Amino acid sequence: MPVRRFHPVLLLVMLLLSGCAGLVPGESVRVSVAGLEPLQDEGLEARFAVKLRIQNPNDRAVSFDGISVELELADKDFGSGVSDYSGTTPRFGETVVSVPMTVPFTAMVRQLFGLAAAGDNVGPVSYRLRGRLGGIGLGGIRFDKRGKIDLQPERRSR
Question: What's the pTM value of the predicted model, to 2 decimals?
Fold first, then answer.
C-alpha cells in the first residue's frame, strides 16, 4: 500500500525534471573573445570593452539577460566585468556583445612587466575567459574558453 502513495509523487518529480531539461539547449553555447578595446580610464583602474562572440549551435534561439566575465592573460588574473545587456542569439547563429571590464592597477603593472621582459619576442598571449550568461534556466549558462590574442596592434594589421 505505501508504494501507491509515493507513486504519484515520483511521477510528479519526473515530470518536473523533464520540464527543466527542456530549458537548456542541446549543445553548449560557445563564447570567445572577439576584441579588446580601451575605454576611458578611471583613477588607478583601466577600463576595456571586451567584445564577446556568442555562438549558438542549436536549432532554437537562446535568450539571455545579463553577462558576467572574468579574463586571465598569460595565466594571471587580468580583469572582470558585468553587463545587464539582454539579447537573443538566433538558432545556428551568433551575436557579438560588448562588456565593460575593469582592470586593477596591479594587474596592469604585472602584465606590462611581463611584456617588457619578453621584449620583441612578444607573440600572441594566452587567455582564459570565464563567465555566465544570466537568465537562462536554473543559474544561467556558464562558459570557460581558452585561446590566444595578439596584443600588438601593428602586428595585427600586417
Answer: 0.70
